TrEMBL record:
It comes from the Bacteria. Residues 22-152 form the Fucosyltransferase C-terminal domain. It holds the Pfam family Glyco_transf_10. This is Glycosyltransferase family 10 (Fucosyltransferase). Signal peptide: none annotated. Belongs to the glycosyltransferase 10 family. One of its GO terms (cellular component) is membrane. InterPro entries: Glyco_tran_10_C (IPR055270), Glyco_trans_10 (IPR001503), GT10-like_C_sf (IPR038577). One of its GO terms (molecular function) is fucosyltransferase activity. Keywords: Glycosyltransferase, Transferase. It comes from Avibacterium paragallinarum.
């Protein structure tokens, strides 16, 4: 089974605790170069319930958190906005919440639904105003069945004629074989992300990302 498939058994066995979690989190280092839409959305949603901010941006938990995944898994939702809207460009922001069975509230890549299942996250771009987007998040927060449907949805779109693991492996093999300059995964955001994934103890449904990042790191470190 592709590890992008969520394990419904895992979700069901932890369902009550998932639903009872605190409301929403965000972890952003700063907002200096980010689109102001994040500020506007944060201000609107925060009027409903307080959003826990674990980064340098609007921090209200005492200090920046040391373990992002450990922090966001304690919340039902995570605000996962890109710094800007660039079609075809998606970062790890949408993946991280799903690894710990938290629903991403996403904004950024207009084409994100080509790769990621729109039933697994809330895309702010689907709404004609931020007010309506906030209203929908509130609706999901108050509807356990609707919220659970997001948790159980597979993050990656499934196309039966594609072998995702082979495609991804070929992609990375091409980088290595051609000797292209790449970053080493012991450092930077991907290196930190690898360490965070290794520390996850509870069952998770998106093991494909663990496998990909582990393989990527192993290849680049050789």
């Amino acid at each position: 089974m592709l590890a992008a498939e969520r394990s419904k058994a895992d979700i069901d066995s932890h369902l009550e605790s998932f639903i009872q979690r605190k409301f929403c989190s965000i972890v952003v280092s700063n907002s200096l170069y980010a689109d102001p839409i994040r500020d506007r959305f944060w201000n609107l949603l925060n009027q409903y319930k307080e959003i826990a901010s674990g980064g340098g941006y609007k921090n209200n938990v005492g200090e920046p958190v040391k373990d992002k995944l450990e922090f966001i898994k304690g919340y039902k939702f995570n605000i996962a906005f890109e710094n800007s809207m660039v079609s075809g460009y998606t970062t790890e922001k949408i993946i991280e919440p799903c690894i710990v069975n938290t629903v991403p509230i996403y904004w950024g890549n207009r084409l994100v639904a080509k790769d990621f299942n729109p039933e697994a996250f809330i895309d702010i771009s689907d709404f004609d105003s931020l007010d309506r987007a906030v209203d929908y998040v509130i609706k999901v927060d108050n509807d356990p069945e609707l919220y659970t449907s997001y948790l159980k949805a597979n993050l990656l779109n499934r196309y039966p004629y594609l072998d995702y693991e082979e495609i991804i492996s070929n992609f990375f093999n091409n980088i290595i074989d051609n000797g292209m300059p790449v970053f080493r995964t012991k450092y930077g955001r991907v290196g930190i992300f690898l360490k965070e994934i290794e520390n996850i103890k509870e069952p998770t449904s998106n093991n494909i990302f663990k496998k990909i990042f582990k393989k990527f790191g192993a290849v680049l470190d050789n």
